[in-house]
Design brief:
2 domains, mainly alpha, single chain, 4 helices
Length: about 130
C-alpha cells in the first residue's frame, strides 16, 4: 500500500501546486477552490494508505522479493463479451437527458435501464454462456 500512498501524495502535491499557479495567473476563486479541494482529497487518501501500510502485513506487491505465485490468483470474474454494460450506460444517459428535456424521457430511460439491468443480471442463466 506504500506505493499507492506515495502516488496519491504526489498527486496531492501536484494539484496543490497547480492550484497556486492557477490562482496566481487567473485570480479565479472557484477554479482555485476546486483544485485545492482535489489536492486535499488526494492528501486524505494518501494519508490513509500510508498510515494503514504501517499496520498491515506487506502484500506481495509491496515486497521486492515476492514470488509470482504469492499473489491472489483470482481477482474476480469479468465478462469480456457482455454488451449489457453499454445498455446500462445508454439507459442512464437517457435518464440524464430526460432530466434536462422532458419527464416522459425519464420514464423511457427507467424502462430501458431496468431491462438492461435484468439482462445483465441474468446473462449467464441462458444462451451460449449459461452455467
Amino acid at each position: 500500500m506504500k506505493i499507492e500512498g506515495l502516488l496519491f501524495a504526489l498527486g496531492s502535491a501536484f494539484y496543490l501546486a497547480i492550484a497556486g499557479i492557477y490562482w496566481y495567473f487567473s485570480r479565479d476563486q472557484i477554479g482555485t477552490t476546486a483544485l485545492a479541494l482535489t489536492g486535499a482529497l488526494a492528501f486524505l487518501v494518501a494519508f490513509y494508505t500510508l498510515y494503514t501500510s504501517k499496520r498491515v502485513y506487506p502484500r506481495p506487491e509491496d515486497r521486492m522479493n515476492a514470488e509470482v505465485d504469492e499473489a491472489d490468483p483470482e481477482y474476480g470474474f469479468f465478462s469480456p463479451h457482455s454488451w449489457w454494460p453499454l445498455m446500462v450506460g445508454i439507459g442512464a444517459t437517457v435518464i440524464g437527458a430526460g432530466l434536462v428535456f422532458a419527464v416522459w424521457i425519464i420514464v423511457f430511460g427507467v424502462f430501458l435501464l431496468v431491462i438492461a439491468l435484468v439482462g445483465w443480471m441474468f446473462e449467464y442463466y441462458r444462451g451460449e454462456f449459461a452455467h
